[in-house]
Amino acid sequence: MAHDLPANAAAASSDAAAAASLETRIREGDAGLRLYARPFGFAPVAVTPGAGLLKPATRLPGPGFRRLAGGWLAFDMVELLWRGGEGRPGRVVLPVEAALRLADRVMEYPGGRRLARRLRALEAPRQRFAGLDLQRRARVMAIVNVTPDSFSDGGDAFAPADAAAAVRRALADGADLLDLGAESTRPGAADIDPAEEIRRLDPALDEASAAGAVVSVDTRKGAVMHHAAGRGAAIANDVSGFTYDPAAAGVVAQTGLSAVAMHMRGTPETMQQLTGYDDVVLDVFDELEDRLVLLDEAGVSPGQVAVDPGIGFSKTVDQNLALLHNLSIFHGLGRPLLIGVSRKSFIGRITGEEAPRARVPGSLAAALLAVGQGAQIVRVHDVAETVQALVVGQAIGRGRA
Ligand SMILES: Nc1nc2c(c(=O)[nH]1)N=C(COP(=O)(O)OP(=O)(O)O)CN2
Ligand SMILES: Nc1ccc(C(=O)O)cc1
């Protein structure tokens, strides 16, 4: 388009038309209509520390902003997307206040109530997760791979003494929680026996529990989750989203573990053949929502389930980038959002860096941008580096030391 003004005017009128068409779709009561809301236009929430009995005071960046998940960011815009049911898919960008008014106007229709629920989920303050506050700042989850064959650090912490040292180092480097994994799930990896997983995990579990750390266990197996819960773990992180082992969700409910439901399709052996999506962002969203239903039905407390779109699991490079670009849409699930980008192959593909250990700068960039979209937990190999990057990011957000 040659001139800015006519282009903007045309966009505004097409936005108005799209918003009107969404409203009509909702009023028609189309039961198959699926709705999504991606917040954007982020700016930091200013927090003045409380003194004595005074609670900290928070100030939004300006009028028309809403606080994201009760956390450190506010947003003033939202992209609404819809698909399914009788009509064509669509999308519209609106100020969040206009989206909330639209939802209000159609509240008597089921679609309107679903839209309102989605928008409320963006704002709803997240509970403490495994005891960790997720409202003040992003949390760093340190990866401790007690494996001989993980894609970037296999063997580093495999021997019991090395596993214990890796736990101590991650905590000394400032990790908020530890993710102990005994099975590599890199593309092509084969399944291992739960007894072997448990045997590998124990030294790290014991060291981490003795140190009083918040411990997550990265496993797809209910028996391993059960064992880890008895040895002090607080979180089950399941890359299969509790679909691999039919007993896993029940174990989480019964033990009271918190949970991370990650998105993947198939198994590490098959996942890179399962990258056919209609719309990767919306399909991953729907499939994660199915995992949440599974956990809800098993009796797991909703506030104790974090979601993760699963970067590198049954995704191409472009699909990983689409998910990271649109990451904030996942706040619409109403749960804490965890993201794992550390040293992954998409960084290698973008930069040409073949050695996973040399992908730290790219990993930091991806982690910071995820936190800039409100991700509450970042799962990383390079703890000290990530902590430093986040501390600087936070200070800039505050505008003072
Ligand atoms: N929730 C969650 N869990 C994960 C994720 C992730 O992105 N999110 N990535 C992994 C891959 O990284 P790792 O270094 O553990 O590699 P490995 O599978 O080869 O051990 C393993 N586990
Ligand atoms: N388990 C995994 C390990 C690595 C990757 C990746 O590099 O994309 C994906 C999955």
From TrEMBL:
<dbReference type="GO" id="GO:0046872">
    <property type="term" value="F:metal ion binding"/>
</dbReference>
<dbReference type="InterPro" id="IPR045031">
    <property type="entry name" value="DHP_synth-like"/>
</dbReference>
<dbReference type="Pfam" id="PF00809">
    <property type="entry name" value="Pterin_bind"/>
</dbReference>
<keyword id="KW-0289">Folate biosynthesis</keyword>
<dbReference type="InterPro" id="IPR000489">
    <property type="entry name" value="Pterin-binding_dom"/>
</dbReference>
<dbReference type="GO" id="GO:0046656">
    <property type="term" value="P:folic acid biosynthetic process"/>
</dbReference>
<comment type="pathway">
    <text>Cofactor biosynthesis; tetrahydrofolate biosynthesis; 7,8-dihydrofolate from 2-amino-4-hydroxy-6-hydroxymethyl-7,8-dihydropteridine diphosphate and 4-aminobenzoate: step 1/2.</text>
</comment>
<keyword id="KW-0460">Magnesium</keyword>
<dbReference type="InterPro" id="IPR011005">
    <property type="entry name" value="Dihydropteroate_synth-like_sf"/>
</dbReference>
<dbReference type="GO" id="GO:0046654">
    <property type="term" value="P:tetrahydrofolate biosynthetic process"/>
</dbReference>
<keyword id="KW-0808">Transferase</keyword>
<dbReference type="GO" id="GO:0005829">
    <property type="term" value="C:cytosol"/>
</dbReference>
<dbReference type="GO" id="GO:0004156">
    <property type="term" value="F:dihydropteroate synthase activity"/>
</dbReference>
<dbReference type="InterPro" id="IPR006390">
    <property type="entry name" value="DHP_synth_dom"/>
</dbReference>
<feature type="domain" description="Pterin-binding">
    <location>
        <begin position="138"/>
        <end position="391"/>
    </location>
</feature>
<keyword id="KW-0479">Metal-binding</keyword>
<protein>
    <recommendedName>
        <fullName>dihydropteroate synthase</fullName>
        <ecNumber>2.5.1.15</ecNumber>
    </recommendedName>
</protein>
